[in-house]
Specification:
The chain is mainly alpha-helical and 178 residues long. It is 58% helix and 3% strand. A hairpin with a 5-residue loop joins strand 1 and strand 2.
Length: 178
């Protein structure tokens, strides 16, 4: 699932068929701090902790997430975004819509560009004040910075495994790029 979403972001980043690509156009694969934040938030909800398939729970990183965020399990955001499989649309929108946000100089999440997975459901934006409070109370940004080498290693692994030059050649052929 994360690979599909990553490819979607790659395609979104490339733009429409009118996007002029040059041979020098670099392929950028980058992580999103707000997107990782939402993955952590959803993993901490009762649904994220109880569902055996939604979150991979056998990694060292997952244990580090629990160790850091366990003291904040009563934060009201976790109850509010405890989406089950019945509310899959909200679950996916909460996580995916975070991609349109970034941290500003004031440490708060702000929208960078218009983007919504679904026009009528905006759970990330609807809960933005609670998300910002969660970030502040839990020390999320410090946790993220401490784990940046891990996130970077995932990006390198992704780049090495995804046939990016072949993907670009296909997109250039299909979209008329040079």
């Amino acid at each position: 699932m994360k690979r599909i979403i990553s490819v979607l972001y790659l395609l979104l980043g490339l733009g429409s068929a009118s996007y002029a690509m040059t041979p020098e156009t670099p392929i950028t694969v980058a992580g999103s701090e707000p997107y990782e934040l939402t993955n952590i938030i959803l993993a901490l909800t009762p649904y994220g902790r109880e569902d055996e398939f939604e979150v991979y729970k056998k990694s060292r990183y997952y244990r580090q997430v629990l160790a850091h965020f366990e003291p904040y399990m009563q934060h009201p955001l976790l109850a509010k975004v405890n989406y089950s499989r019945k509310e899959w649309d909200k679950y996916l929108s909460f996580r995916t819509d975070s991609y349109a946000f970034d941290f500003a100089a004031d440490g708060q999440l702000h929208r960078r560009f218009p983007f919504a997975t679904q026009d009528d459901i905006k759970p990330f934006e609807d809960n933005l004040s609670l998300v910002n409070d969660f970030v502040r109370v839990t020390g999320f940004r410090k946790f993220y910075q401490a784990h940046k080498p891990y996130y970077d290693s995932l990006l390198v692994g992704y780049q090495q495994s995804q046939m990016l030059p072949e993907m670009m050649a296909f997109l250039k052929a299909e979209m008329g790029g040079t």
